[in-house]
């Protein structure tokens, strides 16, 4: 989950100048030691030959393979994916460490082009698999248990069968992919290059966005107005990127015969459209009892007649704006993980000691946070932009959860380890919840408990309400683009159409807020990704409720679920816990946890 670019600050200092401790940096040598590493050249040479020989050996011949032959074919394809993934992980991670470095950008682009060229002859593999009759493939799977293990992979590939084009067109689409990637890079580099002047200090987007949580309302307003000013100055560029990306998607979807702009995302997420619709409807229907109700409380706490957008993530008046240094953050998260199960702590510990986390805010570094799994014979890497806020501790707990999940799933191998986005948030949100509950249990005063609860509710609203509002915006954007080019004003209007509905009448919206869609990376990198956050949060809330009720053997079931990676459908994974995401009541159960926290906050007002 990549997000976007950054402030010029000392890597080991917080926004206020307090020391954060020794922040870790990545050691990428487990992938390669550098651009000129002999191992990298060896792998590129191997990959070129492996792709060519794979095509020679199997192109046009899949239908003639017996079960053992198809297994050999699958294993060779898996090894190719692993080596290509290792190369691109190295190139991508180096780039995200410093997106403004033209050398790193060129290296990543060169590696992407090489790998695209090498792998274009392999497009036949999925095309021919989809031409195999169902009974023929079933017969092969029944004859070889090792081959049958890959059935979930075949099922995912064959889900695209109705949307498959001719072999020649599929190769053309594969080659054209690097053009779409170039628009994504243009977005990243434009965002990385933006500068914001707030109260005489020049900073990047992450530092400016960070000021929206400043205790001083004047600083928050100054940051919001400067964001609006700079986004407005660049809105034509962002509108061009969105128009081009959405049009490209519309063309591809039309040629493939996809029913909606969302169909491809649902297929890749292995989730039924009706399940997503049930989630979306449950959240939208809950806006009044969630975000609308909470922000009325916050409006009262802040003593405002109306809240502005710069108040949405403001700290509470009773909140201690303390800075959490890195060693303390590490201990808080590790204590929570170990308290759940010592095995969780053992899996998390190497991230802190072996250079698997890059935590500091640095010039040119990509903003936000993510956990990248790399490949199954290495390990994940976690990126943060740690500024010492209590919510940064939650981000650490979140991304570390991803990392633990990825380590556990690696045993499935390259083709089965990757989880669909809807399930990829499970361990991350669960890790956050464990950390939050540990901190809540240690709260010594009513105000401390109120601050923790309010912070968690805000995070959940940002994860559930906000992301579903983003999803509705994307649905409207792609639907509108099918009718022609969208002006910046058109996109602005679509953005504003979801804001008041989701946030409620506690807010009014400053001039310029209509351009705030411009910096959201997921709209460009992964259209319709955003509902996965709400899916993951709702799923974990329901899952945590089962854990809190003392379900016997919960920990074992939980580890088994994470180890499964992408080898099972969400129905199979949730069944041991007595949960079913296709049941509309499932989402209400998850949302009731958020509502319950707001109930408790309201009760504290009495």
Itemize the secondary structure elements and their pairings.
Elements: H1 38-58, H2 67-97, H3 102-119, H4 124-131, H5 134-143, H6 145-148, H7 151-159, H8 167-193, E1 196-198, E2 201-203, H9 205-210, H10 217-256, H11 263-269, H12 273-286, H13 291-302, H14 326-340, H15 342-353, E3 357-358, E4 370-372, E5 381-383, H16 390-409, H17 421-424, H18 426-441, H19 446-463, H20 465-481, H21 488-503, H22 522-525, H23 531-548, H24 554-563, H25 570-574, H26 584-603
Parallel strand pairs: 3-5
Antiparallel strand pairs: 1-2, 4-5
Helix pairs in contact: 1-2, 1-3, 2-3, 3-8, 8-10, 12-26, 14-15, 14-16, 14-18, 15-16, 16-18, 18-23, 19-20, 19-26, 20-21, 20-23, 23-26
Name the descriptors.
606 residues, mainly alpha, Butyryl-CoA Dehydrogenase, subunit A, domain 3, Neurolysin, domain 3, three-stranded mixed beta sheet, 26 helices, 5 strands, 2% strand, globular, disordered N terminus
Summarize the structure.
This protein is mostly helical and 606 residues long. Helix content is 63%, strand content 2%.
Anisotropy-based shape: globular
CATH topology of the domain at 273-319 and 420-603: Neurolysin, domain 3
- Physical arrangement of strands within the biggest beta sheet: 3-5-4
Mean pLDDT: 91
Second rung of CATH, namely the architecture of the domain at 273-319 and 420-603: Orthogonal Bundle
Strand elements, count: 5
Gyration radius, rounded:
24 Å
């Amino acid at each position: 989950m990549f997000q976007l670019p950054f402030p010029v600050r000392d890597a080991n200092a917080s926004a206020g100048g307090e020391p954060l401790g020794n922040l870790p940096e990545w050691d990428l040598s487990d992938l390669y030691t550098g651009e000129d590493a002999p191992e990298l050249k060896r792998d590129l040479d191997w990959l070129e030959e492996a792709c060519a020989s794979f095509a020679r050996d199997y192109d046009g011949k899949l239908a003639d393979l017996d079960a053992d032959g198809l297994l050999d074919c699958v294993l060779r394809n898996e090894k190719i994916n692993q080596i290509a993934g290792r190369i691109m992980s190295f190139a991508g991670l180096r780039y995200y460490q410093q997106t403004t470095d033209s050398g790193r950008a060129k290296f990543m682009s060169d590696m992407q082009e090489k790998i695209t060229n090498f792998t274009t002859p392999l497009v036949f593999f999925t095309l021919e698999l989809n031409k195999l009759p169902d009974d023929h493939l079933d017969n092969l799977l029944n004859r070889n248990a090792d081959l049958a293990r890959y059935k979930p992979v075949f099922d995912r590939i064959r889900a695209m069968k109705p949307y498959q084009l001719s072999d020649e067109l599929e190769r053309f689409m594969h080659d054209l992919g690097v053009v779409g990637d170039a628009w994504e890079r243009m977005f990243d580099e434009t965002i990385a290059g933006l500068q914001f002047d707030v109260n005489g200090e020049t900073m990047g987007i992450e530092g400016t966005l960070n000021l929206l949580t400043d205790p001083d309302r004047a600083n928050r307003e100054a940051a919001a107005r400067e964001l609006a000013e700079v986004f407005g100055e660049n809105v034509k560029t962002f509108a061009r990127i969105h128009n081009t990306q959405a049009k490209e998607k519309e063309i591809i979807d039309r040629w493939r015969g996809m029913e909606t702009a969302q169909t491809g995302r649902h297929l890749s997420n292995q989730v039924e459209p009706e399940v997503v619709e049930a989630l979306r409807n449950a959240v939208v229907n809950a806006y009044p009892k969630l975000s609308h109700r909470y922000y009325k409380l916050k409006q009262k706490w802040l003593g405002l007649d109306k809240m502005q957008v710069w108040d949405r993530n403001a700290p509470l008046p009773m909140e201690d704006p303390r800075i959490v240094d890195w060693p303390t953050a590490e201990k808080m998260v590790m204590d929570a993980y170990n308290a759940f199960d010592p095995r969780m702590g053992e899996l998390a510990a190497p991230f802190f000691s072996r250079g698997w986390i890059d935590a500091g805010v640095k010039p040119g570094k990509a903003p936000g946070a993510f956990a990248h799994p790399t490949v199954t014979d290495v390990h994940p890497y976690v990126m943060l932009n740690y500024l010492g806020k209590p919510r940064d501790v939650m981000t650490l707990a979140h991304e570390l959860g991803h990392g633990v999940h990825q380590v556990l799933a690696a045993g499935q191998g390259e083709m089965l380890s990757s989880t669909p986005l809807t399930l990829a948030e499970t361990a991350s949100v669960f890790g956050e919840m464990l950390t939050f509950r540990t901190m809540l249990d240690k709260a010594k005063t009513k105000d401390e408990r109120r601050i923790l609860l309010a912070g968690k509710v805000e995070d959940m609203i940002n994860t559930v309400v906000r992301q579903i509002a983003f999803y509705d915006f994307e649905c409207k954007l792609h639907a509108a683009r099918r009718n022609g080019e969208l002006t910046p004003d058109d996109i602005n209007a679509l953005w504003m159409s979801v804001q008041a509905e989701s946030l409620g009448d506690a807010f009014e919206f400053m001039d310029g807020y209509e351009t705030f869609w411009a910096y959201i990376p997921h709209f460009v990198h992964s259209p319709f990704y955003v509902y996965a956050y709400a899916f993951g949060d709702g799923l974990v809330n329901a899952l945590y409720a089962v854990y809190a009720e003392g379900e016997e053997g919960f920990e074992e079931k939980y580890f088994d679920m994470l180890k499964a990676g992408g080898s099972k459908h969400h129905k199979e994974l949730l069944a041991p816990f007595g949960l079913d995401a296709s049941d509309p009541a499932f989402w209400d159960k998850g949302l009731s946890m958020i509502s319950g926290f707001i109930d408790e906050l309201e009760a504290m007002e009495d």
